[in-house]
Specification:
54% helix; mainly alpha; Transcriptional regulator
């Protein structure tokens, strides 16, 4: 079976966000399967999109994006 074509995205994250990604990947991992930080990001994207489709937590996400730590610098 051919490999799925994937798009690459580069983002700049803070040290704190990187630590959160690392900790989340570690907590989701098991002895049988290690979870990568990229997999955590993909999971988060799917979760947010699903919740948005259900109309949940939009105001909470908007408030988080207003936070200086999550805004793009460019």
């Amino acid at each position: 079976m051919p490999k799925k074509e994937r798009k690459r995205l580069q983002v700049v994250i803070s040290d704190e966000q990187d630590a959160l990604l690392t900790r989340t990947a570690y907590e989701l991992s098991s002895p049988e399967r290690l979870i990568s930080k990229s997999e955590v990001v993909r999971l988060a994207i799917e979760k947010i999109a699903r919740e948005m489709g259900e109309g949940e937590q939009l105001d909470e996400y908007r408030a988080m994006l207003e936070d200086e730590d999550l805004r793009d610098d460019g």
